[in-house]
Structures are given as structure tokens and as C-alpha cells.
Amino acid sequence: MGKNVLLAQSGGPTAVINSSIAGAFDAAAESADIDEIYSATAGIQGVLSENFINLSKLPSEKIKMLRYTPSAGLKSCRHILPSDDEDIEYKKIFDILEAHNIGYLFYNGGNDSMDTANKLNKYAIKHGFDIKVNGIPKTIDNDLFGTDHCPGFGSAAKYLNVTLQEAAYDTYSYLDSKTVIIMETMGRNAGWLAGAASLAEYKGRQIADFIYLPESAFDLDKFLSSISNALDRQTMVFAVVSEGIKNKDGLPLFTSNKNPQDKFGHHQLGGLSSFLAGEVKKHIIKRVKTVNPDIAQRCAAHMMSGVDYEEAYKAGYMSVKFALDGVSGVMSAFERVSNDPYEIKIVPQPLELAANTEKLIPQEWISSSGDNVTESLKDYVRPLIMGQVDIPFKNGLPDYFAF
Amino acid sequence: MGKNVLLAQSGGPTAVINSSIAGAFDAAAESADIDEIYSATAGIQGVLSENFINLSKLPSEKIKMLRYTPSAGLKSCRHILPSDDEDIEYKKIFDILEAHNIGYLFYNGGNDSMDTANKLNKYAIKHGFDIKVNGIPKTIDNDLFGTDHCPGFGSAAKYLNVTLQEAAYDTYSYLDSKTVIIMETMGRNAGWLAGAASLAEYKGRQIADFIYLPESAFDLDKFLSSISNALDRQTMVFAVVSEGIKNKDGLPLFTSNKNPQDKFGHHQLGGLSSFLAGEVKKHIIKRVKTVNPDIAQRCAAHMMSGVDYEEAYKAGYMSVKFALDGVSGVMSAFERVSNDPYEIKIVPQPLELAANTEKLIPQEWISSSGDNVTESLKDYVRPLIMGQVDIPFKNGLPDYFAF
After folding, report:
1. Closest Cα partner for B151 from B296, B10, B20?
2. For the domain with range A3-152+300-357+387-398, which CATH number is right: 2.40.50.140, 3.40.50.450, 3.40.190.10, 3.40.50.880?
3. Across the strands, what pairs with A262?
4. For residue B279, what is the nearest residue in chain A, using CA coordinates?
5. Domain coordinates in residue numbering, chain B
6. Out of A169, A275, A398, whose CB is closest to B69?
7. What is chain B's mean pLDDT, rounded?
8. Are A137 and A100 in contact (CB under 8 A)?
């Protein structure tokens, strides 16, 4: 009799996170060594509460639908395992895993989730449990170490570029109304998403005149004078700002994207883009628009990157393959073999590498002025937004699946 | 020798406004009575400044690209013609039209634009100019009289529903975190766009628990108690609000969507949704998300409604056909012949009907509680969001066209 598989997700969802689950499911279903394929509902919390679903009993049609459904189909949590590896929580988890004859656990998430998988793997080894634990990375933030890029990033990057491009066409509908457009992207510490928005073009020219990243100190006065100078030269000025931009002391401009009290002491109900728009209105020009894709950038499965969708699937698939080959304590990482033509291979990387670390944009990919990105960053991102996914629609809307 | 055609656009752009121009172009190109097809750049302003482009000289490939490109491809303006029909501006316009041998003028826009077309048509008749002037309607607000619905509305409605649906999947990633989600839609006086967002479903159930329309008096205390009561029953509560909601005295909650001073006297940098989110945070629960599609709802050609795209084309096509049949002073209006199966016919309606009027949601399509819509409204909107448009991509992004 074979062992059973358990799949779980945690952390912030993405457009392709379920594609990874579909990949892991398919690899497990192909294996004669595996009996049942379970999911735990809401990550490690679902393990602790024994909230399992037997995916093997699901009509195969549902797994196909789950694959293109955005956001954590297995439900997510933000539970962090105790740092004390003798904490009673671990024993409880492994008792439950044993009771369900789980031989393989695959944990799909960002750096906190890789930390969870890492802790579980170490505990299994230390206490002699015959359970392989591997990670399947995902994060729109693209900030995991040990991998060229992360599943979820390409789709978010594509959506942001499409949104910026369409906003530019909208703005250029008017010939001579000087306008400032500020698009805010996610990314608390790493500016990959803001930087990625450098790809959108209008008439062959990069739309984003300025890109403000958490990796470069943000100076409000310099921001205002840059906008003002640009308005002397051109009619429309586009700025992309990462929600995580920081001042020269490394303090975020906002303690939280939606914090009612900004660092300047103003009462602030909107987010960063609203604040910056208010400053531009006060000091430069009244005609300012904000574009705030907010959660849409991480869940817009209707505009997934085909490359991202396929790679996310393969990351899940390979995570299971590594485990079946006896490898545990790794995540599926991408190694870029070639950029043009684009080619990657998927390699096992120790979970230790990704757990709780953050990969920032290298300084040489940021323009010397600190307010834009270089061609190298664009070359890096470009292959990741390629291809579209033709998802099924029903009654005019995407036909997604929910348990 | 035949006459020439002049095409122009004005008002706020939509995702399908250029599809109407492509339809008008094709109908004109098919006619032996027509020589050249010009466009005026930036509406009536482009006429006044003789800023014309000869579209007949453009490679036909470009018209095909223009068709699926969002936002006013011919550029837009917000110029209103003088109410004094002997104003010198009219003489100037008709001198220019005569100089270019324009026999047909097609004006593509919302109610202000239909007013412009109407004034020009009356002037032509009064002064004996052999120029036919027809309107091609468009407005995401869907508030034109004399037509069942307006080109542009279906695509905006589809985009809003897709965005709400994906936001719901994102929100439901977490099992037990009570959350309030507020999505703001456009619509200053008519609530069609907010009402349309009633179609999005999660697990077969309407996502929007509450829909606040300009047609129903908005009461902040009632809003807060509705949200609070709903949170007692369920984990996630979704509210859709039209930017134009008004209090019982008919005063808008915000004088402008982005007005820094709200009606409550608070300093306000964000929009309406930020303000309402702030009130919910203050009085009910901290976990509130806003979804603000903003200009994306009117320019997201990547998520056009197939029905809207085709109907916009036909509206342009028929506007020219009517003129070639000798009919002037009309706009192409939709008459719904049947709802299931959906079928419309395109009929000429006097411009007078649409000019400067606003069609609101009928009271019987608003729930008696005033905070949602009825099945009748959903039945009305549903056919308009059907079908997708497979637009070409280049380097992973939509391959749009700009002059």
C-alpha cells in the first residue's frame, strides 16, 4: 500500500497558485506509489484542524477548472509555526499526518510558507518520520531567494502593464490637457512589480516616466520637482510607485498601504497614490489621476501570463517528482538557461535558502537617478509576461471553481 | 464627384468607441457616393483647427487595429458649441467643412456630443448646407435617452463584474477573517454601472450584498448598520457604490470623485470608497479593502464584451447608412427586439432625444430597500456582457494602435 499526499497553500494568493496545485496533483496521480491525494483547507491551520478534502474523489473536470481559478483554491492562512521545534504544535501536526498516512506534504506559498515547510521537514528528519516535505514557491512580489523568479510574478507584471497601457491610451485621448498619472503597485520591500511596469509602451516609448522603488530612497521634494520638470517638456507624465517606497532613513512613507495616519502627520484615508496625487495637486497641477490596481494585480486570472501559468504548473509537478525521487526539504526553483530564446529548467533548492529572506532588485538594474529601471531589468521581466491563457467563460464571465 | 466624410469623437472614451469608427469607416468605404474619409483630431476642436487626417490613405491594417484599441483613437475634446445658433463659431465650422467638400459628418460621443451633432445639423438645415450630420452614441454610463442601451456600457459592465468576481475569489482565500470590500464604480447621476455589478457570482450567489445607486438616497448611518448586520450573518461583506451617490437632499456625497474636501468637512485625499472604508474602519471593523477600477473600467479593451464590440461597430456602420439614405439629425439607437434569445435592431432616433438628457435606472429595478437591484435589471444587463474579443498581442501586451 502506498502513501498519501497532502497539498496546502498559504500566504497571499496569486493568479496562478492553483496551477501549481494542479501540477502537483497530476504528478501525484501519475505515480503508482501514491494512493490518495488530499488537500488541507487553509494551509497548516487546516492540518491542525484536520480539515481535509480528498481531491482524488473529485471529478477530474474540477481540477482542470481549479487550475485557471485565481487565488488560493485550497484556502490560505498566515499561521507561522513556533520557532521552538519541540513545541507541542509540531507533535499535533505529525500525529495528524500519520493518522492519514501522509507520506508527502507539499506546501505552496511565499517565504513564510517556505519557512513552514522547512520547519516541518526538519522536524520530520529529527524525529524519524517517513514524510517528505517540499515547497512550491509563489509570490507576486518575486522576492524569494534561490530562484530566478517566482510563480505569480509574471501574471501580476502582465496585468500591471496592460492596465498602465490602457490607462495611457485613455489619457492620450485628450490632446492638450496636462495630466499627471500615478499608478501604485504592490511590493512592500522589493520593487519588482513597480519595476516590471516599465514594459508598457505607447507609440514605441516606455509609458512610465518615473518608477519609484523601495530599493531607492524616496524624496518628496525631488519627486515633485521631477514631475514639474517633466510637465515642462511633455503633456502627460506617468509615475509608477511601489507601495513600499521608503525615505532616506529607510522608513516607509506609509506604515501600511491603508494606514489612516501617514508619516507626514496628515490624516490619510486613501493609500500612497492618493497622498502623492494630493501633493501634486497642491504644488503643481490639479489634473492628477491615480490608478490603483490593488488586489486585482494578484488575482486577475483573466489576464494571466501564459509563461507564468505553465511554469507554476511545472513548479508543482516537479516538487512532487523531487519527493518521489527521495528528495525532501527543497522547493522547485527556476534557473534561467537562456533569455533569448527564453528557457528555464526547474531545479531543487534547499528550503533554507528561501525561508524568510527577501531578494531585492540589484542596484545595477536601477537607473543612476534612482527613479527608473535599466534595460537589464526589462530584459529580465519581458519573457515572463509572454503568452495568454484562454480561460472558459460562462454567462459572459470567467467560469472559475470554488470548493 | 462624390462628397467626403468626416468622423470625429468627443467626451469620455470607452473600450469600444473606436469599433464604432471602424464601422462608420467601412460603411463609407463601401459607398460609391463617397470619395475621401477624413477624421478630425479631437472632435469639434479638430474641425475648428482644420486638424484632419485622411483615413482613406491609411493602410487598411491600421483601421483593423484601431477597431479594438481602447479610448478615443481620433482624440477627444469637451468643447460645447454656443447656444446662440448665429454665433460666428458655426460659420467658421461650416466654412471649413465646405472647403473640404464634407457631405457627411458623424459625431461619436455621449449626450454632450449628441448635442453638438444636433446643433450642427440644425445649422446646416437652417442655412441650406448639403451636409448630413448624424450621431454615433457611446457612453459607459448608459444614460442616453432613446436607445435601449449605449455602446461602451456592456464592456465596462463586463470588466467591473470580472474585477469584482476575481476580488471575491481573492477575499475568500481566507476562511475566517471578517472582511468588508467596497468597490467604487463610475456613474455621476445614473447608477447603471454599479447596478450592472450585480451579475458577478461566487458559488452561484450574487457577490454584491449591497449596491448603492445615485437613484436612491444614501444614508451613512444606514449604510454602516447594514454592513454591521451583514457581518453578523456572514464572513465577507461586499458593497458596490456608485461614485455619484447622493444624500436625501439630492446632494452628492462628494462634489467630485477626487475632491479634496468632502461634504462632511473632512480633509479627503482618496475617493468615495476610501472615505466609506474609513468610516467602516472607525465604527465597525478594521479589515476593509477597496476596489477602485477607476479609468480602467472605461478603457479595458482586453476584457471587452463581444456583444458590445459588435454593436458599437454596427452603430457606426448604420449611422453612415442612414445618412446615405438621406436621413440626417439622428443617432443610431438600439431597440431590443427580444431578450432571450437576445436580439436588437438599430433604428434612427432624433438627436434631440439624447442631447443633454440623462436616463436613470427605473425605480422598479431597484430593490425596495434601496440598496440593491432586482432581477429585471440583471436580465437587462446580462446579454450585454456576453462574448469575448480575441485581440492580438505583441511582446505579451495588447497590440493597440495610435496615430
Report:
1. B20
2. 3.40.50.450
3. none
4. A269
5. 3-152+300-357+388-398, 154-297
6. A169
7. 94
8. no
Domain B3-152+300-357+388-398 -> CATH class: alpha beta
B154-297 is a CATH 3.40.50.460 domain: yes
**Of B265, B277, B332, B293, nearest in space to B187 by CA:** B293
B13 contacts in chain A (CB < 8 Å)? 169-170, 173
Name the residue facing A165 among B41, B291, B397 (closest C-beta).
Answer: B397
Three-class DSSP category at A188: coil
Does residue A181 sit in helix, strand or coil?
strand
A268 pLDDT higher than 70: no
**Chain B touched by A98 (CB under 8 Å):** no
Measured between beta carbons, which residues in chain A are less than 8 angstroms from residue B77?
174-175
Give the tens place of pLDDT for each residue, A173-184.
Answer: 998 889 999 999
Per-residue pLDDT, A358: 86
**B141 tagged catalytic:** yes
- The reply to whether A3-152+300-357+387-398 and A153-298 are identical in fold is yes
- Which of B26, B112, B115, B141 is flagged as catalytic? B141
Q: Where are the alpha helices (DSSP H) in A100-197?
A: 111-126, 153-171, 192-196
Instruction: Report, in angstroms and rounded to the nearest whole number, the Rg of chain B calculated over CA atoms.
Output: 22
Q: How much is the pTM?
A: 0.96
Summarised one tens digit per residue, pLDDT across range A389-398 is 999 999 999 9
- On whether any CB of chain B is under 8 Å from the CB of A290, the answer is yes
AA letter at A390? D
**A71 interaction partners in chain B (CB closer than 8 Å):** 166, 169-170, 172-173
Nearest residue in B to A160, CA atom: B397
Would you call A203 and B267 a contact, using CB atoms and an 8 Å cutoff? no
Q: What is the ipTM of this complex?
A: 0.96
Residues in chain A with CB shorter than 8 Å from the CB of B201 are: 397
Sign of CA dihedral A325, A328, A334, A335: negative
- In sign, the C-alpha dihedral spanning B226, B228, B234, B237 is positive
Residue bearing cell 473600450: B15
Does the structure show a pLDDT above 50 at B265?
no
Q: Tell me the residues of chain B between 317 and 356 that have a Cβ less than 8 Å away from chain A.
A: none
Please name the fold of domain A153-298: Rossmann fold (3.40.50)
**B99-147: pLDDT as tens digits:** 999 999 999 999 899 999 999 999 999 999 999 999 999 999 999 999 9
* pLDDT tier for residue B387 given thresholds of 50, 70 and 90: very high
